[in-house]
Amino acid sequence: MTKAIRIHETGGPEVLTWEDVESGEPGPGEVRLRQTAVGLNFIDVYQRTGLYPIGTLPAAIGMEAAGIIEATGEGVSGFHTSDRVAYAMALGAYAEERVIATDRLVKLPDGVDDHQAAAMMLQGMTAFYLLRRTYPVKAGETILVYAAAGGVGLILCQWAKHLGANVIGCVGSHEKAELARAYGCDHTILYRDEDIAARVREITNGNGVPVSYDSIGKATFESSIDSLAPFGMLVSFGNASGPVEPFNPGILAAKGSLYFTRPTLATHTATRESLDECANKLFAIVSSGQVKINVGQTYPLAETAQAHRDLEARKTLGSTVLVP
Ligand code: NDP
Fold first, then answer.
1. DSSP states of 273-317 as a string?
2. In this prediction, what percent of the chain has a pLDDT beyond 90?
3. Which of 66, 131, 218, 219 lies 20 to 30 Å from 102 when distance is taken between CA atoms?
4. Could you tell me the distance, in angstroms and rounded to a whole number, from the CA of residue 42 to the centre of ligand 1?
């Protein structure tokens, strides 16, 4: 028996319940993990509310954790008992122990501790693919990043800075503005009060930005479009304020032959080769000290409902770790 946070129905944070469950024995290609740190991500909110359906309930949600292999199933190669590992994008992370297929796992280097790993795998691999694959940022470019003081945001700002970009970050408070600046933001926009597109034009001498990394969705679609330079790309990678409404693609022509894309880490880590590339680039930049992982808050795993309340109320800073 183990303990897990499960949902029996979709809804508010109150549907997250702390329960006894069977962790089970690993089957072929699987291992049983004792999890030492679990990552909190905004995708967990979408799954809890039903915005992203997860299939049969009840189910443990959560997509990311670090831990130690306790038992291996038949035919497992490359992973052994006592190995320190981590994963992202594998449903069922809100548990003290779990069974998981090894094709989702990566081994942790000595320099990366378990809390850091749980805080960074999902958000950091996302920052990597956004900046290096979706729109490869070049030195000297000025880019726009939303929720710049959040989990993905702080990593994205530092990584973009390392690539030589100038970073404009949208943030929800003065405290967040200060944090984002400490992590590489050159300019901050308090987007609850300020006109984003007008500020972006001011900062870029009227040119606009070549890319907007927009995780807010519905509330900021127009500001993103209006902030882009001709041929610019709106990378819509999240829906913190709700999904983007259906729109007429003609707007992309009218506003300057723009591009729109809606990527997900699931595709970018679907194969072992692609997962390893994302993980290794992340480990390298964190080990070099050029990207620092900010664990802004931790909660006992049993108190995940409170963590969800705080995340949705925009109270969290940086990344959040749930401790089993
Ligand atoms: P964050 O730590 O960034 O938390 C979300 C932040 O969004 C809040 O702190 C808040 O910052 C901002 N926000 C703006 N409007 C709202 C709103 N209406 N409700 C709640 N928050 C709001 O979360 P994560 O780092 O986990 O994720 C950031 C985003 O990236 C999410 O949208 C997530 O879905 C997306 N994502 C997408 C992935 C992909 O592959 N497509 C992978 C990983 C994450 P502020 O107060 O500064 O506005």
1. HHHHHHHHHHHHHHHTTSS---EEEEEEGGGHHHHHHHHHTT---
2. 99
3. 131
4. 6
Q: Whose CA is nearest to atom 6 of ligand 1?
A: 147
User: Residue 43 — pLDDT band, cuts 50, 70, 90?
Assistant: very high
pTM score of the predicted model: 0.98
Q: Which pLDDT value is given to residue 230?
A: 98
> Residue 242 CA: which ligand 1 atom is closest?
18
Ligand 1 centroid–CA 247 distance in Å is 22
Residue 323's pLDDT is what?
98
> Strands (DSSP E) along the chain, which ranges?
2-7, 17-21, 30-40, 59-60, 64-72, 84-88, 97-101, 106-107, 142-145, 166-171, 187-190, 209-214, 228-236, 259-261, 295-300, 319-323
> Domains of the chain (ranges plus CATH)?
2-121+269-323 (3.90.180.10), 139-262 (3.40.50.720)
CA angle 30, 34, 38 (to 5 degrees): 100
Closest ligand 1 atom number to CA of residue 149: 47
